[in-house]
Amino acid sequence: MLARYEDDKISAEPAKLVEKSWKSSTAKSYDKFWGNWCKWTNEESLNSFRPSPTNLANFLSFLFKSGLSYSSINCHRSAISQTLSLDGSPKLGFHILVRRTLKDMIISKPPQNRISTIWNVGPVFIYLESIDLSSTSSWLLVNVKVSCLLVLCLADRSSDLRLLSSDITFYDNSCHVLLTGTRKLGSQNAFIINKFSNLTFAQWHICIFTSILRLAADLQTRNNFFLGLSHNPVTTVIIARWIKTALARAGGNTAIFSAHSKRTASTSHAYKKGLDLAHIIKAADWSTARIFHCHYNRQIEPFSQDFSSTVLSGYKQP
């Protein structure tokens, strides 16, 4: 997309800084969407860098008729709008004509949720409770337990966990974990993990503060909180695999539910338990309640305590 910068007479150095301001995954996606836009404008004999709101609305309509999902079409809109606004002009993607076009798509073909229910966090916590960090020597079990407790109790993304460092400050009732980089939404704020209260003796095994405290000595010998078998920093894919492992061993249907579903499970559970929606939005780092209601709030699958206990009683740690 450097051609866009050159068209606006932006020198190479600022152009590179602008590109670096986007995460690599975002830039890669934007390149694909921008390529589709340029191909369409060339076929229509239009200027890719100086379109009108009508041009963008027609392009989005073309994508809709081609069978693309609303999510994909909206990503195209965002990529084009963000790139074209680098010269300080108003974002084309927010023009009333473009917004009306997107709204018409939703009315004509409402997005369908792939699933209407979400897995219950109860069996997963029962499984995690069975992992005793003071006695297990399994590298996998330690990482599975701590990563799952973090994402379920803090409603964070797997990509955020990858950034956790070993720089931890402990207080009486909480600990602060610094990050090695920037989160998805640009924040570099430390993870603040509070100590649970009013837990039974057995339930202390699922207190994330207690779990991190038990790992404190080992964390002093490395820079990153999570490490792989080769002692290198782990990727988001590996953390997602740990979460999926816990879900599978707790009896969850991993053929339907991916690791990404953990935010849906934890926030839906908190909402069902009566937690104020404002606290849920803040914990999940969402901008509005609409995001939760439209994309994350799901009916929770029931589970049998007797069934879960029976499954766990026959489980042998590797």
User: Mind telling me the CATH superfamily name of the largest domain?
Assistant: Intergrase catalytic core
Q: Order of SSEs, N→C? A: HHHHHHEHHHEEEHHHHHEH
Beta-strand level of the residues, as a percent range?
5-15%
Gyration radius, to the nearest Å? 23 Å
Helix-strand makeup class: mainly alpha
CATH topology of the largest domain: hpI Integrase, Chain A
Q: Which architecture of the largest domain does the CATH hierarchy give at level 2?
A: Orthogonal Bundle
Percentage of residues in helical conformation: 40-55%
- How is the biggest beta sheet arranged? 3 strands, antiparallel
For the termini, the CA-CA separation is 50 Å
Walk across the major sheet and give the strand order.
2-3-4
Poorly predicted ranges: 307-318
Tally the helices: what do you get?
Answer: 15
| Mean pLDDT over all positions | 81
> How would you name the oligomeric state of the polypeptide chains in this document?
single chain
- Total count of strands: 5
- CATH class designation of the largest domain: Mainly Alpha
Principal-axis shape equals elongated
What's the number of domains? 2
Protein name: Tyr recombinase domain-containing protein
Organism: Strigamia maritima
Keywords: DNA recombination, DNA-binding
InterPro entries: DNA_brk_join_enz, Integrase-like_cat_sf, Integrase_recombinase_N
Structure description:
This protein has 2 domains: 1-108, DNA polymerase, domain 1 (Orthogonal Bundle); 117-300, Orthogonal Bundle (hpI Integrase, Chain A), CATH 1.10.443. 53% of the residues lie in helices and 7% in strands. It has 15 helices and 5 strands. It has helices at 2-7, 12-20, 24-43, 53-65, 70-84, 96-108, 121-129, 139-154, 158-161, 208-219, 236-249, 262-272, 277-284, 289-296, 305-313, and strands spanning 117-118, 164-170, 174-179, 191-194, 299-300. The protein has a 3-stranded antiparallel sheet, covered by helices on one side. Helix 4 packs parallel to helix 6, helix 7 (121-129) packs antiparallel against helix 8 and helix 8 crosses helix 11 (236-249). It starts with a helix and ends in a 5-residue tail after the last helix.
